[in-house]
């Protein structure tokens, strides 16, 4: 089981990276970069070889809810840069010669052993069929860490990401094996009543989860729907 990044022992001096104010960055950008560089999950992801700190979100959710098991077929929507693919491939024991983890993203990314990644937009009309064809059958688990590119307008960004969550949910309902699971990024702030109703109609358990690796100040949540009725 992967542990959370440990806090420094009492009396231990922690070296922090500081970005100079005269670095040419906007103050908000400077603060974000400084926080990112000093994030223990960012530091640990580099040490553990994960593509991003987001890998620990899936690790922590899976440690608690046991979604990933050897041999399961998995689809990862919005896979770049590949952290979730790494975790899924390792925990399902997907091998390069017989991969059963398939990702998709319009952004290019380096290959992940045990995973096939389609470089295309999930919203393309032929994307769902391509995913199932590549996987070679129905998935046991559909993952989505998709978020829309930000516009700077919080309400607009929220609605755009919620749309991606809704599309991912409809995809999961249409392709999952009976008993399968669905996990997707969402945000606090409403507009998801219909989505929750739809999931509750099709899964035996639906809940929001917020793993420790998700920053406290973030409105990010994950929707976890378990045991697809089929």
Automatic annotation (TrEMBL):
EC number: 2.1.1.166
Amino acids binding S-adenosyl-L-methionine: 82, 84, 105, 121, 145
Catalytic activity: uridine(2552) in 23S rRNA + S-adenosyl-L-methionine = 2'-O-methyluridine(2552) in 23S rRNA + S-adenosyl-L-homocysteine + H(+)
Protein's name in the database: Ribosomal RNA large subunit methyltransferase E
Superkingdom of this protein's organism: Bacteria
Subcellular location field: Cytoplasm
InterPro entries for this protein: RNA_methyltr_RlmE, RNA_MeTrfase_FtsJ_dom, rRNA-MeTfrase_E, SAM-dependent_MTases_sf
